[in-house]
């Protein structure tokens, strides 16, 4: 199973996108665990759980470099969700991009 974390300031706005991504994953029959957290929870989650990818909400893009440095030792990739996909809450597009990042 693939584990994807979406992170934003409080984990609230990304939770709506998580729902859309879960629907897309179910339709595509992908075994994916997706959940939303706040950026302040990233260190704990990465240290205690399997995480394949961290996607940041566009509103916390300014934290990307710092978060990448914090999770570098665990080898977890970090990317920012495209503003256009985020604004449309396009779970299918975000899931597709995430799976491409993970699977290569």
UniProtKB/TrEMBL annotation:
PTM annotation (Phosphocysteine): residues: 8
Superkingdom, taxonomy of origin? Bacteria
Name the Pfam families on file: PTS_IIB (PF02302)
The reply to whether Transport figures as a keyword in the UniProt entry is yes
Q: Name one GO biological process term.
A: phosphoenolpyruvate-dependent sugar phosphotransferase system
Q: Which UniProt keywords apply?
A: Kinase, Phosphoprotein, Phosphotransferase system, Sugar transport, Transferase, Transport
Q: Which stretches make up the PTS EIIB type-3 domain?
A: 1-104
Instruction: Read off the InterPro entries from this record.
Output: PTS_EIIB-like_sf, PTS_EIIB_2/3, PTS_EIIB_3, PTS_sugar-specific_EIIB
Q: Which GO terms describe its molecular function?
A: kinase activity; protein-N(PI)-phosphohistidine-sugar phosphotransferase activity
Which SUPFAM superfamilies does the entry mention?
PTS system IIB component-like (SSF52794)
What is the protein's given name? PTS sugar transporter subunit IIB
Tell me what organism the protein belongs to: Aerococcus christensenii
């Amino acid at each position: 199973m693939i584990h994807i974390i979406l992170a934003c300031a409080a984990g609230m706005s990304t939770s709506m996108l998580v729902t859309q991504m879960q629907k897309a994953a179910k339709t595509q029959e992908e075994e994916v665990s997706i959940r939303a957290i706040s950026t302040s929870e990233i260190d704990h989650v990465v240290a205690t759980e399997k995480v394949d990818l961290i996607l940041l909400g566009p509103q916390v893009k300014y934290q990307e470099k710092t978060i990448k440095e914090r999770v570098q030792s665990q080898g977890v990739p970090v990317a920012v969700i495209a503003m256009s996909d985020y604004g449309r809450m396009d779970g299918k597009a975000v899931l597709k991009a995430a799976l491409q990042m993970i699977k290569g």
